[in-house]
Amino acid sequence: MSADFSAVRADFPALHQTVHGKPLVYLDNAATTHKPQAVIDALAAYYERDNSNVHRGLHALSMRSTDSFEAARARAARFVNAADPAEIIFTRGTTEGINLVAQSWGPAHLKAGDVILATEMEHHSNLVPWQRLAVRTGATLRLVPVAGADAEHGLDLDALERLLTPQVKLFAFTHISNTLGTINPAADLCARARRVGALTVVDARCSAAISWLSPATRWPAPPASGFSTAAAPCSMSWSHGRPVAGWSRASPLRVPSGSPRPNASRPAHPTSLTPSPCTPRWIISTS
Description:
By secondary structure, the protein is an alpha/beta fold. It has one domain (84-286): 3-Layer(aba) Sandwich (Aspartate Aminotransferase, domain 2). It has helices at residues 5-10, 37-50, 60-79, 94-104, 106-109, 128-137, 157-163, 186-195; strands at 18-19, 22-23, 88-91, 115-119, 140-144, 168-174, 199-203, 237-240, 282-286.
């Protein structure tokens, strides 16, 4: 693979500076990704021309904002080959996306005796929500160990086979580790989980912007991948999931008892989802 990285850098105004007398090298993209000039220009045009509430007005600015908002959802759906734009749920970041799954799906589907499976290489935002959910529901949290003294062999797949039992209701794992750089075989892991009937949550925050990943690390057709978009002044994310049979746009959002109900005038999104054999239920990414 060849790439003109100088041309890529030229698209990002924030990189046109020196720090300590050296050209800036920015590596913290998993936390905050800088925006290319095209995105900055689009944001400026929005605030100069269309700034208005989405889904909340009948005047021209609100309708233009709503059209742009839903066009972005549709574009994200096409990018990840989602069956329907309604499968794309915008959140403020990966952490909120994972917590959305944990707080909406978790209490309704987990009970004492169930198992939540994660891995030893998870970021806290893909670990703490499952720890809290386990305490709340009485489920047990187990971790797939890494192989090798320095985790140089990735996940211990033999241990995974032992841990991935019918008691596992949810398997959460990172696509690319933010600390180790390990690229997990996401499609294979999802297929293994599906064989025991487990839901999968894939943290794709670090793989979102890497379009050159080997096809072996992607999801088999029809893919259900979630990749990030650099299209917000602060962190923005989407969660992608497959709806259950019979779900429609008119279906109410199923939320835990006592939680606020969604506005009836807005399209509802699924919180109870089912995948095709090798695809994740949710992939959550950020930019």
